[in-house]
Amino acid sequence: MTSTNSIKPVQPDISISVCGYSKVLEIISNKWTALVIYSLEDGAIRYGEMGRRIEGISKKMLTQTLRQLERDGLVQRDITPSIPPIVAYSLTPLGETLLQPMRELNQWTRDNYSLVEKARATYDQTYTQE
């Protein structure tokens, strides 16, 4: 019987540059991105209304987030010619596909985040007494 326990160099099997999951997380992990997507969940919304719905977001961050989501193909901007122009944002069909996984993550948070907080408190209590 031959031994298969020879030492082989370890090759990374998880790569931030190749992993599709990390690329998607790069898009949606920004706190403003998730909130903007949630604000668009029920359909098109104007910029000012979106800014009022999302607590704490600055105009600069809202603009940057919308531009990035538009670039990623998740949000579309519709301009109605008038004076002043009416600008509304909505999810694209691709953006709508993110709603279900985000809802599931939101549900996981509601179900489990108190356990995360408890674990953190236990950890902090254990390791700050050293």
Provide a count of the helices.
6
Structural class: mainly alpha
Shape: extended
Q: What is the CATH architecture annotation of one domain?
A: Orthogonal Bundle
What's the total number of strands? Answer: 3
**What's the overall average pLDDT, rounded?**
89
What fold name stands as the CATH topology of one domain? Arc Repressor Mutant, subunit A
In a nutshell, what does this entry contain?
This protein has 130 residues and is mainly alpha-helical.
Attribute tags:
130 residues, mainly alpha, Arc Repressor Mutant, subunit A, 3 strands, extended, HTH_HxlR, WH-like_DNA-bd_sf
Descriptive account of the structure:
The chain is mainly alpha-helical and 130 residues long. It has a domain at 20-97: Winged helix-like DNA-binding domain superfamily/Winged helix DNA-binding domain (Arc Repressor Mutant, subunit A), CATH 1.10.10. The protein has 6 helices and 3 strands; from the N terminus they run ααβααββαα. It has helices at residues 20-28, 31-39, 47-53, 59-71, 93-96, 99-127; strands spanning 45-46, 75-80, 86-91. A 3-stranded antiparallel beta sheet has the order 1-3-2. A hairpin with a 5-residue loop joins β2 and β3 (86-91).
